């Protein structure tokens, strides 16, 4: 087995005439360099170390890069937990990659360095060189920001937060608030855009985000937002939202309530002004996602996953008119033949076919305390989905914290490894459905892999 080592003195980085880099590793039986290197891109694997509980990933994030050729080679073995680059972050780092894989962007999550933005040039193995200055977005969106890289040629990132406070009527007796009447819950949204090239703050705005009067009177409010996505025209930004509810009679949290139609906040871009909320009549549930990008522009529209839908997750469509296209009905339960499908993460290639991580009713709970996960191949145009059979599934293989899919043309790279067990990189050719088993991922106790970039 060819093993990629920590010490990269045994490696030669060859600068190609195209300006791309390819990493050539030594083989156990040779000490020469491939005389005919192929043009490739870097694939960066992200690993989340256990803190106290298997699969929690809060013990730190490590990254390790290899060429796409090595990523596809099952005789290659990498050990990111032992040899990886430690990404600055108190908890699991929030990572993004440039479209060509040559740069990794990070914003530290929580702790003293929470909200710090840094970027790194990918140089192979554990070698990531910080480039440009660091900048803190903590004054704008806190030390645990939800952020994403917009698909505008790696120029801009966007980070968001929301806070809430109940509004009560004045009963006329300042010393006795027992008769105050609930009016609504104020949701205040902050959003900042970040110049990824020059490490500068571009714009910041703060808004009150309103639902309908009827919804607010019933106690509904937007409690979490995430995953800003730029529309095809580049003049609107869509932000996914999660709804929560209080009991108007008591102002206590209400957990047994009607799930409303999926909602998205729409802002003017780049000004970040004029927030409105659009609502789907097809899907119900949340659109904020979790750790992975939840919405993507494709062929002039934005396609968005939802979660916690009573009918199982949908992929929803927002048209060029910046409204939900309710003629587009793509339900994962129906497409996969399961119940209570839950989209954990997904990523389309340019051909409109996507790899999607999901769980469903009947998924067995594993070591992490979370249900087993699976990958599916999805066609946005045909509205079809099928479980990918060329990837092994274990009860301890779960993707709740999954962050990244590396896209190279029609190919999508994913990581597969149960919690605390070794696994592999797999490459899915979205055009043909063919699956290639790639490099081995060496794991450590209680830890897991959270994606390829």
Automatic annotation (TrEMBL):
Keyword annotations of the record: Signal
Annotated signal peptide: 1-23
Domain of life: Bacteria
Protein's recorded name: DUF4374 domain-containing protein
Organism per entry: Leeuwenhoekiella marinoflava DSM 3653
């Amino acid at each position: 087995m060819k093993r990629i080592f920590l010490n990269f003195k045994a490696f030669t980085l060859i600068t190609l005439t195209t300006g791309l880099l390819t990493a050539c590793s030594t083989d156990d039986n040779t000490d020469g360099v491939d005389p005919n290197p192929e043009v490739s891109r870097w694939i960066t694997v992200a690993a989340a170390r256990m803190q106290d509980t298997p699969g929690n990933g809060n013990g730190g994030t490590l990254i390790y890069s290899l060429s796409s050729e090595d990523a596809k080679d099952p005789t290659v073995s990498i050990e990111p937990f032992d040899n990886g680059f430690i990404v600055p972050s108190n908890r699991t780092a929030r990572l993004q990659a440039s479209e060509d894989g040559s740069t990794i962007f990070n914003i530290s999550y929580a702790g003293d360095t929470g909200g710090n933005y840094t970027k790194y040039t990918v140089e192979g193995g554990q070698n990531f060189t910080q480039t440009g200055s660091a900048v803190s977005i903590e004054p704008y969106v806190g030390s645990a920001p939800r952020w994403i890289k917009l698909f505008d040629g790696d120029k801009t990132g966007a980070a968001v937060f929301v806070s809430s406070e109940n509004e009560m009527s004045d009963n006329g007796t300042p010393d006795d608030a027992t008769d105050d009447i609930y009016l609504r819950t104020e949701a205040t949204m902050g959003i900042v855009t970040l110049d990824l090239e020059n490490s500068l703050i571009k714009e910041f705005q703060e808004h009150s985000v309103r639902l309908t009067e009827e919804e607010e009177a019933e106690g509904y409010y937007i409690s979490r937002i995430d995953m800003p996505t730029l529309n095809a025209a580049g003049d609107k930004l869509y932000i996914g939202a999660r709804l929560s509810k209080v009991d108007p009679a008591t102002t206590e949290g209400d957990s047994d309530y009607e799930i409303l139609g999926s909602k998205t906040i729409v802002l003017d871009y780049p000004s970040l002004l004029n927030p409105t909320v659009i609502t789907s009549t097809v899907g119900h549930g949340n659109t904020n996602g979790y750790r992975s990008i939840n919405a993507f522009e494709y062929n002039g529209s934005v396609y968005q996953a939802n979660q916690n839908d009573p009918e199982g997750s949908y992929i929803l469509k927002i048209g060029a008119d910046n409204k939900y296209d309710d003629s587009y009905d793509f339900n994962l339960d129906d497409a996969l033949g399961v119940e209570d499908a839950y989209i954990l993460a997904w990523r389309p290639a340019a051909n409109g076919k996507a790899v999607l991580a999901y769980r469903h009713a009947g998924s067995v709970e594993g070591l992490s305390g979370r249900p087993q996960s699976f990958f599916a191949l999805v066609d946005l145009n045909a509205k079809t989905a099928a479980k990918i059979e060329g990837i092994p599934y274990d009860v301890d293989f779960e993707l709740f914290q999954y962050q990244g899919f590396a896209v190279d043309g029609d190919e999508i790279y994913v990581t597969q490894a149960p919690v605390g067990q070794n696994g592999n990189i797999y490459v899915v050719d979205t055009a043909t459905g063919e699956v290639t088993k790639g490099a081995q991922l060496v794991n450590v106790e209680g830890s897991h892999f959270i994606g390829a970039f």
